[in-house]
Structure prediction request, 403 residues.
Amino acid sequence: MMSSPITYALRALSTFFSPQKPLIFSGQGAVLKLADLMVISGQKRPLLVTDSFLLKNGMLDELIAFLEGAGCTVTVFDGIIPNPTFAVVEAGLAASRAGQCDAVFAVGGGSAIDAAKVIAAASTSKKSLAQLTGILKVKQPPLPFYVAPTTSGTGSEVTSAAVISDTETHKKTFFVDPKYIPIATAFDTGLLKSLPGPMTAATGMDALTHAIEAYTSRNRFADTDRDAAMAIKLIVKFLPVAYEDGADEHAREMVALGSFLAGYAFSKASLGYVHAISHQISAHYNTPHGLANAILLPRVLRFNKTASAQRYAKLERMLSGTEGDAFAPEQVDQFIARVDALAERVGIPVNLKDVQPADFDAIAKEALAEARSSYAVPRVMRKADVVAILKSVESGDRSVRFV
Ligand code: NAD
Prediction:
């Protein structure tokens, strides 16, 4: 099977080097413990990176009061939008410089965290944002960086990547460097429980996709398998609970931890075609990342069915509590049916109205290029396979016929 030089290089690098995991605070009030850690570490001029919705809804009030009470001068940048752009990061960087900030503290979903990562790195660098794009481009240590995720899906709180949208090229641009991994993260159930049901579902399915793509990657390792499997267990069990009762703090915390573990697993093992295709869909139509992944996952699971049969069957045995059993072919379909059932239970639609047949060709080419350059997929797609998936996403028929 073909692999790109980048996937070989990542494999070689990952064999000797494991990304660090940030320190974790978890549970009600965890964000204040994180803020305390920052203050004790000596940072007194933080840039809070968030969006206007979270700020207006008072979700940062306690944090700001705590920091001000501890003698900090707080600069708030609330210009984050979903799928953040270069212009958004530039505006955040200007705020960081104007406030002479000595730390970056993100409170929000993957969009806030990703933008904050690049703001933290650019704040200490003479390079332009364009020069920071790509792999291992951060030479100076970024500003100390802390995160409190308010969604549970992207895993950005543990990954070495940030994704910024280029509005001119309709492409998502990657910034990848271990220096983007935060110092510490807080899973504060008080911040997580306001996430509405459909967002809980889409972001949770995003985390499940990370875990499954890492578990079936040809670049997997013993530690990524362990974390991905644990993430799948947590998400399958607790996502429906968090979706049906958003105030269930235990379920919220378990889904957040599942998302974190999935983030670690994919950061080292890499992703697959769900992400390769969904990145192009989001770049073309601004579709929420988690939703695009959630709709694509059942299709790509079917495409990989034969290549990943042993892996799906092993997951099925884990989820059904029959770990000791031998492989049986029906376990493969049972696993796919389990993922379909979870998606249905949390209200994931079967189709995406956004996608336009006129764009299928371009999306397919871009998706194949992303997968070729970055992912160690279990089975290689051709353009016709991606187009078949896009047609099924448009029509809503999950049972894609691959030619
Ligand atoms: P998001 O950050 O774009 O947030 C989506 C919406 O949810 C926003 O309008 C926000 O205001 C709202 N929201 C967030 N938390 C809330 C809460 N607790 N209560 C109510 N509303 C809330 O969504 P996301 O899915 O977390 O992030 C998607 C972004 O992350 C994309 O840009 C994607 O490319 C990126 N991503 C990054 C990585 C990585 O490793 N860096 C991995 C996957 C995805």
Q: What stands out?
A: The longest helix spans residues 222-244.
